[in-house]
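Quick one: structure for this chain?
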Amino acid sequence: MWKTAVTLALTGLLAVGSTAIASSDDRADRPDANGPRGTIERVRIVDFAFRPRRIEIPRGTRVRWANADSVQHTTTSRTGIWDSGALAPGDTFSRVFRSRGTFRYFCSIHTDMTGKVVVT
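Got it. Here's what it folds into:
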């Protein structure tokens, strides 16, 4: 009886562990081994614009967009790398940039809103 309970408990832990490892959110929360641990660069969405519009960050930095406007907006990669979905006023979205390069983005609701993340 106790062997069955232990086996079921271990099976449940292994299933939970494998789910967590496969989660893209879990991977996104870990800073890059070569980047600055815990570094967060903030971009505000206000007055139908990203502020600042262009940021330059080291590899491994997390960028957090915060919608401080009165309407919904998105932060959407031009190449499909990320899409926040609609962010209501007060909502945030973040991601860690692990690769060097220039990443252009826009608001898919208001397509004239654009921004750029330059990763060094």
